[in-house]
Amino acid sequence: MKILVIGSGGREHALVWKIAQSPLVEKVYCAPGNPGIGTIAENVQIKVDDLPGLLAFARKEAIDLTVVGPELPLSLGIVDLFEEYGFKIFGARKNAAIIEASKAFSKDLMKKYHVPTAAYEVFTEVGPAITFIDKVGIPIVVKADGLAAGKGVIIAQTRDEAVAAVTDMLSGNAFGTAGSRVVIEEFLKGEEASFLAFTDGKNIIPLASAQDHKAVYDGDTGPNTGGMGAYSPAPVVTPSIHEKAMEEVMRRTVDGMAAEGRPYRGVLYAGLMIDGDSVKTLEFNARFGDPECQPLLMRMKSDIVPVLMAVAEKDISNVQIEWHDKAAVCVVMAAQDYPGDYAKGDVIRGLDVANADDLFVFHAGTALDNGRLITNGGRVLGVTALGPTVKEAIDRAYSGVSAISWRGVHYRKDIGRKALSR
């Protein structure tokens, strides 16, 4: 089989890494890819939003399966286009990808189908939004309605901060058109977990549990990012929480999307807030989380290709997935000043030292400059390790991190610590 992966980040590097291990696969392409991906697949210089270009490439190379990594091409309708021309493709169609592309849509869907979530309202004007903030009180959560690369969520700790977030978003200064509508919701207390599942629109197969670390600094402080690290399994997802997540979140959502005439196929990601026995849904993503994808795929024992193909063929009723007993931890190494305006072009050193048994460095924001590897994004590398326990996986990941350096590099030093406290 010839497989095309669309995207250029750490998630796509993990997908390519896992797909390339399949005995079913003869050749893997990635568009546009990155230098790390280029060591195990052929990078193709086509942008993720160039749908005609991607289709033309798939036709020219007779691609057997296309796997979509990021949310943007899904929201633009790449799955609809490829299917129209008879190509097998893994991902949600445009009318289903709206579950991520519009937070207002996903909140309204949850309300209609009784998926537990925070109380909320949707606003397009500043005045009514401020009235709602005063009614609900602080802390409060302000979300840009549209796609904002994982950064369109402000957890406001003061009234001034909440008012500034709403004003910035609705004026178009923050997140552009993604912030032309805002969702404001009550702040939920508890511990976050990421719950992912494959679905063909009817059947649902959960992945192993995982936990992301969104805040930029240790102790979950500072602004939200696309994710500073992740680990799997997540002890906070107990068997009873898993059952609740499947029945009250995944089942109701998949059935609700089908009832709305928007059958959801692909991987569905639910961000959950867990507080004791209570499970509430923070958000949905229409793709693999990044960085959750990295530790999850390191723990996946089964060949991923038959799973992706079964989803593309709209029937996963016979699919089973095996997982390694080992734990996996991913530590994201970020560019100076990320998630603000960050530096690019710094030379990365030590990668050759970092790779070892049960440790892999996934490239997220890198480029080549005259043969030198340089930083080219906010989240630069995802150092991911397997270990018999979470503690051993943490130690192995940070030993890899300690070997790598560039000017201004920063990373959280507490990835996975919540698992140890349990």
The biggest sheet amounts to:
5 strands, parallel
Shape: globular
Strand content: 25-35%
* CATH architecture field of the largest domain: 2-Layer Sandwich
What is the name of the CATH topology of the largest domain?
D-amino Acid Aminotransferase, Chain A, domain 1
* First and last CA, distance: 43 Å
Number of helices: 14
Query: What does the average pLDDT come to?
Result: 95
User: How many structural domains?
Assistant: 4
In spatial order, strands of the major sheet run 3-2-1-4-5
Give the C-alpha Rg.
Answer: 20 Å
Secondary-structure blueprint:
Layout: E1 2-7, H1 10-19, E2 27-32, E3 42-43, H2 51-61, E4 65-68, H3 71-76, H4 78-84, E5 89-90, H5 94-101, H6 103-112, E6 120-123, H7 126-136, E7 140-144, E8 153-156, H8 159-170, E9 182-186, E10 191-199, E11 204-206, E12 211-212, E13 215-217, E14 221-224, E15 229-232, H9 239-259, E16 266-275, E17 278-285, H10 293-299, H11 304-312, E18 327-334, H12 351-354, E19 359-363, E20 366-369, E21 372-375, E22 379-387, H13 390-403, H14 417-421
Parallel strand pairs: 1-2, 1-4, 2-3, 4-5
Antiparallel strand pairs: 6-9, 7-8, 7-9, 10-11, 10-16, 12-15, 13-14, 15-18, 16-17, 18-22, 19-22, 20-21
Helix pairs in contact: 1-10, 5-6, 7-8
Note down, in words, how this protein is organized.
By secondary structure, the protein is α+β, with helices and mostly antiparallel strands. The chain has 4 domains: 2-93, Rossmann fold (3-Layer(aba) Sandwich); 125-180, Dna Ligase, domain 1 (2-Layer Sandwich), CATH 3.30.1490.20; 191-313, 2-Layer Sandwich (D-amino Acid Aminotransferase, Chain A, domain 1), CATH 3.30.470; 327-419, Glycinamide Ribonucleotide Synthetase, Chain A, domain 4 (Alpha-Beta Complex), CATH 3.90.600.10. Helices cover 32% and strands 26% of the residues. The protein has 14 helices and 22 strands. It has helices at residues 10-19, 51-61, 71-76, 78-84, 94-101, 103-112, 126-136, 159-170, 239-259, 293-299, 304-312, 351-354, 390-403, 417-421; strands at 2-7, 27-32, 42-43, 65-68, 89-90, 120-123, 140-144, 153-156, 182-186, 191-199, 204-206, 211-212, 215-217, 221-224, 229-232, 266-275, 278-285, 327-334, 359-363, 366-369, 372-375, 379-387. The chain has a 5-stranded parallel sheet with strand order 3-2-1-4-5, sandwiched between helices. A 5-stranded antiparallel sheet has the order 12-15-18-22-19. A 4-stranded antiparallel sheet has the order 6-9-7-8, sandwiched between helices. A hairpin with a 2-residue loop joins strand 16 and strand 17. Helix 1 (10-19) runs parallel beside helix 10 (293-299) and helix 7 packs antiparallel against helix 8. The longest helix is centred in the middle third of the chain and has 21 residues, at 239-259. 49% of the residues are buried. The model has no long low-confidence stretch (mean pLDDT 95).
